[in-house]
Design brief:
alpha+beta; 37 residues; single chain; two-stranded antiparallel ribbon
Length: 37
């Protein structure tokens, strides 16, 4: 079975932004994002 790719948090945020999510706020290492309508 192939391994899953290792993806950093920064890369994940960039992909989510391309999919229409926007940065809401951050507390420590936890980032909250919201889907823009």
């Amino acid at each position: 079975m192939p391994r899953h790719p290792v993806v950093s948090g920064f890369e994940t945020i960039k992909v989510l932004e391309k999919l229409g999510f926007s940065f809401l706020r951050q507390a420590g290492s936890h980032v909250q994002m919201r889907k823009v309508a």
